[in-house]
């Protein structure tokens, strides 16, 4: 009996020696902002990649909210310890693009890694957002979402509305909201992310410009234009709804999400990424539909634009690291990996192949509503609907929050509020242009 | 009688103050100098291109009418926080001082909030006032008051003042309690024998003896309201609705840490520093005269 522990120890040592890699692994630091269930998704992606090969080890680190991880990465970059991969929200895209010395274009990284890279494989509306004017893809699409319309079927039933016919246009939204209110609902309609849902996506959906020079895609000299007659008309409509208690403002950013999931608000425009949360936590039957539009506007509905984040590769790393990053990024884009990510999170598929694979598997039939975001995005884009890419976007969005709050509270008329937001926002754009003229 | 300490050696006093000076240099003058330097620069977020712009950052501030407005917001906020914080803490301290049984429990409970991080305090109060399911807003609704800090500037200001006062009350309470316990009981007893009412005893004996403490707390509370409250604002109102609760320090935090505008944020922190220096000088010049030591 004495030799047994010894043999065990020997076997353990042997297996340890076998598990040791032939050469040292190259570690790849990945900073991200995916908490909770999404954090598990990110960890699973890294673990699966690490298990698939021996040379590289991706180490994901949760760094707080999008703006927190970006601030942390910028501080780290200034101190010379930037991570290798950084997840940046769409609002930070122009800032990253302008910081030429800080980033390494994904297209270049893929070339260094020697992996097959075809920008055309990516969903055009998503990839186009992260592509420089010269056609070079700068960052890797990762978790892109878009705006969809949610409605509470139970509330619809109690208000005598047809649950299979969600309102398709804004006049229909007003009618439905009126009926919901008459049936006793305190919050017929609300929205998360005012700027993103009611100005940025509203503009693309109606094929009008949010800002000049093709929403910033044409250069740094872009100026805001969201005080056009159509925008003012929409905000007058919303302000009237607010006055009658049909639209209830629930706060900045995604504060309204909680009121949608709890069933307090019956209809809402919010991120497609909310779908997973609703599926898990909503105690009522809900439906997903396309964003409402004004039927008399020519060209509407066009397509929606993205939100969410992409992966940026930071500059100044060893070649070995870039090789690994390239391997990892192309792993994420594999049809089966990308399709699994799309189905798991509700975010858009990054490649067309991943979308087709998901469709073939019958996923959309089993999960009604999951395809709304995709079908809204996968259309031919126009110069006005490719996306919004402006500098100092964080400040511009806050200015929009501030000025539209003045509209809901009745301090300013919709025209005054939008004009003020455009004026103050343009000052931010001028400053961005000045600071990044190099 | 000679009050000053006399050192025979020429270098010993310098050596003795050196550690203190080193700390002040590293933790105050160096960052303050950095802020001054940053305030005349403009750079992109990553600091890859930086440029000297002179007083451009300051000029931009004065051209922004909302920045000038936020001085008014800040003044209102700081006065409310300092005055309410000091009054409530004084009341609590006087009451706690009279408690004989279970005094330790009361004191512990009153000191508790100081251990709470500002951002947690903000979230806590936000929860209570979140409409329609917050405990307080629900009650207010039942009483007929339609609480809505998302769209009413007054409600939003009330919310951040309450959260900030609640967070600071423990600090004020501790100092007042210590002050009250050092009031000689013989004086109070003498006044009682002379027939002075409790009210009279408090205003003509206890409060004057507390005046140095009150003055100290006034200075500290103003500094607290000016510098330490951005996390509460960020968690509770984010400066909204509109700009109604956008106090100066919140804008410094927002522009620096969220919007990554280092130059603008540094310029604002320099302005804020100047305002607080002026206020402190004013307090020592004029308010301190009323203090009896």
Automatic annotation (TrEMBL), chain A:
<keyword id="KW-0732">Signal</keyword>
<dbReference type="InterPro" id="IPR050490">
    <property type="entry name" value="Bact_solute-bd_prot1"/>
</dbReference>
<dbReference type="GO" id="GO:0042597">
    <property type="term" value="C:periplasmic space"/>
</dbReference>
<keyword id="KW-0813">Transport</keyword>
<dbReference type="InterPro" id="IPR006059">
    <property type="entry name" value="SBP"/>
</dbReference>
<dbReference type="Pfam" id="PF13416">
    <property type="entry name" value="SBP_bac_8"/>
</dbReference>
<protein>
    <recommendedName>
        <fullName>sn-glycerol-3-phosphate-binding periplasmic protein UgpB</fullName>
    </recommendedName>
</protein>
<comment type="similarity">
    <text>Belongs to the bacterial solute-binding protein 1 family.</text>
</comment>
<comment type="subunit">
    <text>The complex is composed of two ATP-binding proteins (UgpC), two transmembrane proteins (UgpA and UgpE) and a solute-binding protein (UgpB).</text>
</comment>
<feature type="signal peptide">
    <location>
        <begin position="1"/>
        <end position="24"/>
    </location>
</feature>
UniProtKB/TrEMBL annotation, chain B:
<feature type="transmembrane region" description="Helical">
    <location>
        <begin position="266"/>
        <end position="287"/>
    </location>
</feature>
<comment type="similarity">
    <text>Belongs to the binding-protein-dependent transport system permease family.</text>
</comment>
<keyword id="KW-0813">Transport</keyword>
<feature type="transmembrane region" description="Helical">
    <location>
        <begin position="12"/>
        <end position="30"/>
    </location>
</feature>
<comment type="subunit">
    <text>The complex is composed of two ATP-binding proteins (UgpC), two transmembrane proteins (UgpA and UgpE) and a solute-binding protein (UgpB).</text>
</comment>
<feature type="domain" description="ABC transmembrane type-1">
    <location>
        <begin position="71"/>
        <end position="283"/>
    </location>
</feature>
<dbReference type="Pfam" id="PF00528">
    <property type="entry name" value="BPD_transp_1"/>
</dbReference>
<dbReference type="InterPro" id="IPR050809">
    <property type="entry name" value="UgpAE/MalFG_permease"/>
</dbReference>
<feature type="transmembrane region" description="Helical">
    <location>
        <begin position="201"/>
        <end position="227"/>
    </location>
</feature>
<keyword id="KW-1003">Cell membrane</keyword>
<feature type="transmembrane region" description="Helical">
    <location>
        <begin position="156"/>
        <end position="180"/>
    </location>
</feature>
<keyword id="KW-1133">Transmembrane helix</keyword>
<dbReference type="GO" id="GO:0055085">
    <property type="term" value="P:transmembrane transport"/>
</dbReference>
<dbReference type="InterPro" id="IPR035906">
    <property type="entry name" value="MetI-like_sf"/>
</dbReference>
<protein>
    <recommendedName>
        <fullName>sn-glycerol-3-phosphate transport system permease protein UgpA</fullName>
    </recommendedName>
</protein>
<keyword id="KW-0997">Cell inner membrane</keyword>
<keyword id="KW-0472">Membrane</keyword>
<dbReference type="GO" id="GO:0005886">
    <property type="term" value="C:plasma membrane"/>
</dbReference>
<feature type="transmembrane region" description="Helical">
    <location>
        <begin position="109"/>
        <end position="136"/>
    </location>
</feature>
<feature type="transmembrane region" description="Helical">
    <location>
        <begin position="71"/>
        <end position="97"/>
    </location>
</feature>
<dbReference type="InterPro" id="IPR000515">
    <property type="entry name" value="MetI-like"/>
</dbReference>
<keyword id="KW-0812">Transmembrane</keyword>
């Amino acid at each position: 009996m004495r030799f047994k522990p010894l043999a065990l120890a020997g076997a353990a040592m042997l297996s340890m020696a076998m598990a040791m890699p032939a050469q040292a692994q190259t570690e790849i630091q990945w900073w991200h902002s995916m908490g909770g269930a999404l954090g598990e998704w990110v960890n699973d992606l890294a673990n699966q990649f690490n298990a698939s090969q021996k040379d590289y080890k991706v180490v994901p680190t949760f760094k707080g909210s999008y703006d927190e991880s970006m601030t942390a990465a910028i501080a780290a970059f200034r101190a010379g310890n930037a991570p290798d991969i950084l997840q940046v929200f769409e609002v930070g895209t122009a800032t990253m693009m302008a910081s030429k010395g800080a980033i390494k274009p994904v297209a270049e990284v893929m070339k260094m890694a020697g992996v097959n890279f075809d920008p055309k494989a990516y969903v055009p509306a998503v990839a186009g957002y992260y592509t420089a004017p010269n056609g070079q893809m700068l960052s890797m699409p990762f978790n892109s979402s878009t705006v969809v319309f949610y409605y509470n079927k139970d509330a619809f039933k109690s208000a005598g509305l047809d649950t299979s016919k969600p309102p398709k246009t804004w006049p229909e939204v007003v009618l439905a909201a009126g009926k919901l209110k008459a049936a006793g609902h305190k919050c017929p309609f609300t929205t998360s992310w005012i700027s993103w849902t009611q100005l940025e996506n509203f503009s693309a959906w109606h094929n009008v410009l949010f800002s000049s020079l093709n929403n910033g895609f044409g250069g740094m000299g872009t100026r805001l234009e969201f005080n056009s007659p159509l925008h003012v008309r929409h905000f007058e409509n919303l302000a009237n709804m607010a006055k009658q208690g049909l639209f209830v403002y629930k706060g900045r950013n995604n504060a309204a999400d909680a009121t949608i999931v709890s069933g307090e608000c019956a209809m809402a425009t919010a991120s497609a990424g909310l779908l997973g949360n609703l599926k898990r936590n909503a105690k009522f039957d809900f439906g997903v539909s396309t964003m409402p539009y004004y039927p008399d506007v020519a060209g509407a509905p066009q397509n929606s634009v993205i939100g969410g984040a992409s992966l940026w590769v930071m500059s100044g790393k060893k070649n070995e690291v870039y090789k690994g990053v390239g391997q990892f990024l192309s792993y994420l884009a594999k049809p089966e990996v990308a399709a699994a990510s799309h189905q798991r999170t509700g975010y858009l598929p990054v490649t067309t192949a991943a979308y087709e694979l998901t469709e073939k598997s019958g996923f959309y039939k089993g999960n009604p509503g999951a395809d709304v975001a995709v079908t809204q995005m996968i259309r031919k884009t126009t110069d006005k609907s490719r996306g919004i890419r402006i500098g100092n976007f964080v400040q511009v969005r806050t200015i929009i929050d501030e000025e539209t709050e003045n509209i809901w509270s009745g301090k300013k008329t919709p025209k005054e509020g939008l004009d003020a937001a455009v004026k103050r926002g343009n000052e931010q754009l001028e400053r961005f242009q000045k600071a990044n003229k190099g | 009688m000679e009050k000053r300490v006399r050192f025979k050696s020429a270098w010993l006093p310098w050596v003795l103050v050196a550690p203190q000076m080193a700390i002040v240099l590293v933790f105050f003058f160096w960052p303050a100098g950095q802020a001054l330097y940053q305030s005349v620069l403009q750079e992109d977020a990553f600091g890859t291109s930086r440029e000297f712009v002179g007083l451009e950052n300051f000029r931009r501030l004065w051209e922004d009418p909302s920045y000038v407005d936020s001085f008014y917001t800040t003044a209102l906020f700081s006065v409310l926080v300092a005055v309410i914080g000091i009054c409530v803490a004084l009341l609590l301290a006087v009451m706690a001082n009279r408690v004989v049984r279970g005094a330790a429990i009361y004191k512990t409970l009153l000191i508790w909030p100081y251990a709470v991080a500002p951002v947690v305090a903000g979230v806590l109060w936000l929860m209570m006032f979140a409409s329609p399911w917050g405990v307080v807003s629900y009650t207010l609704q039942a009483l007929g008051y339609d609480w809505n800090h998302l769209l009413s500037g007054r409600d939003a200001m009330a919310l951040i003042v309450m959260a900030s006062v609640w967070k600071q009350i423990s600090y004020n309470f501790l100092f007042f309690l210590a002050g009250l316990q050092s009031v000689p009981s013989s004086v109070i007893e003498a006044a009682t024998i002379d027939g002075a009412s409790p009210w009279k005893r408090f205003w003509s004996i206890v409060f004057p003896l507390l005046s140095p403490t009150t003055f100290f707390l006034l200075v500290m509370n103003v500094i607290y309201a000016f510098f330490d409250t951005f996390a509460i604002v960020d968690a509770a109102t984010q400066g909204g609705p509109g700009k109604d609760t956008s106090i100066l320090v919140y804008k410094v935090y927002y522009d620096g840490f969220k919007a990554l505008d280092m130059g603008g944020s540094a310029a604002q922190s320099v302005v804020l520093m100047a305002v607080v220096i002026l206020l402190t000088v004013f307090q020592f010049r004029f308010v301190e005269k009323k203090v009896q030591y």
